[in-house]
Amino acid sequence: MKLPSLNGLRTFSAVAGAGSFTLAAERLNVTHAAVSQQVRLLEDRLGTPLVNRVGRGIELTEEGAALARDLEIGFATIGRGVERLTDGLSNRPVQITMSPAFAVEWLLPRMAAFQQANPDITLMLNPTADLVELKPGGVDVAIRYRDKRRPVGDIEPLLLSDMVLIGAPELVAGRKLSHAADLMDLPWLQELGTNEAAEWLTYHGVVPDRPLVVHQMPGNLIMSAVRRGDGITFTSRAFFQKDIEAGRIIELFSEKLFGVYYIETRPGVLRPAVKTFVNWLRSQAEVVTV
Questions:
Q1: What is the pTM of this model?
Q2: CA dist 126 to 51, 145, 173, Å?
Q3: What's the first-to-final CA gap in the chain, in angstroms?
Q4: What residues does the HTH lysR-type domain cover (predicted)?
Q5: How far, rounded to the nearest angstrom, does the alpha carbon of residue 196 sit from its chain's CA centroid?
C-alpha cells in the first residue's frame, strides 16, 4: 500500500497531540484552514473518518486514536534515528589530507589557534604524498598542490607562493651555482613518490648526463634534512621564509608565484564541523607572494 503524504500524517499527529485544530496550527506555524484541509485529505486517502468535531473541540474516532498511537511511536523512532545520526556526525573527526611538508611547516603551527576557538571539533591529519580520494565516511578535506607546469583550472587557493631551490650554507658555501646545471653535483632531497629533481632540471633546460644523487623521503623529514645540510630541495618559500631571512638557509633559485596550494572538498553536503574547518582555512589564506 502506498503511504499517505508525510505532511498529512504529521499534521494529523499534531492535531491528535494538541486536541485542537487551532493549537495544532499554532504549533505547526500554519493556518487553521491548512490543518483542517490536511486532515480532510488524509481521511479521504484512508477512506475513514479520523476526527469528529465536538462543539469547539475535537474527538478522535477509534481509527483515529489507533493511527495517532502508531504515528507517535513512528515519529519518535524517526527522531531517535536522526538524533543518533547527527550525534555521530558531530562526534566524527574532520579528516584532512595534505603533503607532510605542508602539514609540518604550515598547518600544524596554526592548528592550536583553531582548536582553541573550536574545542569540540577533532582534527585528524593524514600527511601523505599520495592523492587520497575524498569520499563520504573518509577524508573530508584535501589540501592539494599544483604549479605553473600544470593547468590550474577552477580551484580555491589557500597559499600562493614563490617556489625556491634551497640549501644549507655549509653545503653550498664556496660553490659556483649560477646556472641550473651547476646543481647536478649536489645531493637532492625529494619527497617520496615524486620526481622533483629531474623535473626541475628539465624545466630549466638541463638534461642530466650522469645519474643524480637523490634521497627520497617523507616531506617532513626533508625539512630537517635540508636544514642539516644533507642536500638541496625544491619547496615553497613560505616553509623556509624565516630560515632564509636569518641566513640559516640559502636561496639558490626562485620561481615567482610558481606554486599554489588549494582547498578541495568532497562533493555534496558538508558536515557542520567540516564547514567550520574549511571556513577557518579560508580565513588563513595567503594568496600573495610569500
A1: 0.65
A2: 59, 15, 37
A3: 65
A4: 4-61
A5: 27
pLDDT of residue 289: 43
Tally helices (H) and strands (E) across the chain.
Answer: 11, 10
Burial of residue 164 (CB within 10 Å: 0-12, 13-18, 19+) is buried
What angle in degrees, to the nearest 10, is found between the helix axes of 272-283 and 62-91?
Answer: 40
* Cα gap 187→107, rounded to integer Å: 28
Retrieve residue 270's grid coordinates. 558538508
Spatial distance between the Cα atoms of 69 and 52, rounded to a whole number of angstroms: 17
Tell me: the pLDDT tens digits for 57-99?
788 999 989 998 988 888 888 877 776 766 565 678 999 999 8
CA distances in angstroms from 170 to 103, 166, 186, 190, listed in the order given: 27, 12, 12, 19
C-alpha 79, offset from chain centre: 28
Q: Sign of the C-alpha dihedral, residues 263, 269, 275, 277?
A: negative
- Summarize pLDDT for 100-127 with one digit per residue, the tens: 889 988 999 999 999 999 999 999 998 8
What pLDDT shows up at residue 290? 43
> How far is the CA of 286 from the CAs of 35, 98, 244, 264, in angstroms?
54, 16, 19, 16
> Residue 223, Cα to own-chain centre: how many angstroms?
25
SS3 state of residue 39:
helix
Residues of the chain with pLDDT under 50: 288-290
Residues 114 and 87: beta-carbon distance below 8 Å = no
CA-wise closest residue to 226 among 290, 144, 177, 170: 170
